[in-house]
Amino acid sequence: MAKQADKRPRSIFEEVGTTRKSVATPGGIDRGRADARRGLRIWLGLLFALVVCIVFVGGMTRLTDSGLSITEWAPVSGAIPPLSAEDWEVEFANYQASPQYELMNQGMTLAEFKPIFWWEWGHRQLGRTIGLVWALGFAGFLLTRRVPAGWSSRFLGLGVLIGLQGAVGWWMVHSGLQDGMISVASYRLATHLGLAFAILGLITWYMLKLGRREVDLLQARRSAERKVWGGMTGLMHLGFVQIILGALVAGIDAGRAFPTWPLMGDSFFPPDPFQLEPLWRNFFEDAGLVQFIHRMAGYLLLILGVVVWFRGSRSPHRATRFAVNAVLAMLVVQMVLGIVTALYSAPLHAAITHQLGAVLLWVLILRARFLARYPRVQSLRKIRK
């Protein structure tokens, strides 16, 4: 079939018989992926919200001593809560056989048991929901071939971490069901919370990268601010360590040990910080030493934050400067929250606010780090000289 002749008038300087060539459309390499990226970000955004929610519910579960109310790990059948009086009696009887009941909650009634059961059941149900949302979303995007090149392994790795988190959760709970235990092992709690923040960090980073085209990221990387990037990377690592230390504090209720500031009681150092044997136990089980290390790490984090802010505040890119300012502001807020939490012996509302503050600070650090790596280049008129 002959091609339809070009009916547009030719220039008087164009030779007869010359074939017009189509001009390449800018951004053609990313065409067809915009909707996929938007959909992926919505999916990741839902996962992000669910992970933040489970961090909150997990914190409440710990603060209300509810984590050991369910003594079995049933990933599938456990999704169904007790539906009859007989079911409730069975659950309560299982809890009554646990060391926590015998040593701490002797005489608790069924009515008093139900609230702590619902906290733990809700925590586990959120974990199941996160796994389901990941699996359905990943399978859907994979089957419809809407996953950008190189991203399948990243999303699969995210799913592996989510599954691992469920296993770590039971590993943590199992430690609290051993003889003589009334709560979970603090180092296992720290592992569980640390993995949650690692998952949250990966989701945040993936959302940030998918928010811009590959060609834009490649161009932006040429303007990367290495010193700010390096400083934010250090802040990210130290911030993660501080999160782990905070979990150790929560695991042994060390936040209630010294309701004073800036001193710990009457001195800078806690009294008798190395009285447990063997020596390593003090770093996990001595309330004074654990809280002291958490405080010192907080001071160090703030000092490093000021240094990084000083570098970032001179960035020629407005978005980077704003992101760095937000990190420093949240660092100050988080430190104040920590001091208030300690002074009032870690009341529930202050402790959970402090934990959520860590989530916000973590995300802000990652965002500032991303913008240092991939700056949003402004027009010449808006760039600070």
TrEMBL record:
Ligand binding (heme): H294, H354
E.C. code: 1.17.99.9
Key word Transport present: no
Biological process, per Gene Ontology: heme A biosynthetic process
Source domain of life: Bacteria
Required cofactor names: heme b
One Pfam entry name: COX15-CtaA
Keywords: Cell membrane, Heme biosynthesis, Iron, Membrane, Metal-binding, Oxidoreductase, Transmembrane, Transmembrane helix
The keyword tRNA-binding is assigned to this record: no
Localization per record: Cell membrane; Membrane
Residue ranges of the TM segments: 40-60, 125-143, 155-173, 185-208, 228-252, 292-310, 322-346, 352-372
Annotated GO MF terms: heme A synthase activity; metal ion binding; oxidoreductase activity, acting on NAD(P)H, heme protein as acceptor
Membrane topology field: Multi-pass membrane protein
This protein's pathway: Porphyrin-containing compound metabolism; heme A biosynthesis; heme A from heme O: step 1/1
Top EC class of this enzyme: oxidoreductase
GO cellular component annotations of the record: plasma membrane
Family: Belongs to the COX15/CtaA family. Type 2 subfamily.
Subunit record text: Interacts with CtaB.
Name by which UniProt lists this protein: Heme A synthase
Highest classification ranks of the organism: Bacteria, Pseudomonadati, Pseudomonadota, Alphaproteobacteria, Rhodobacterales
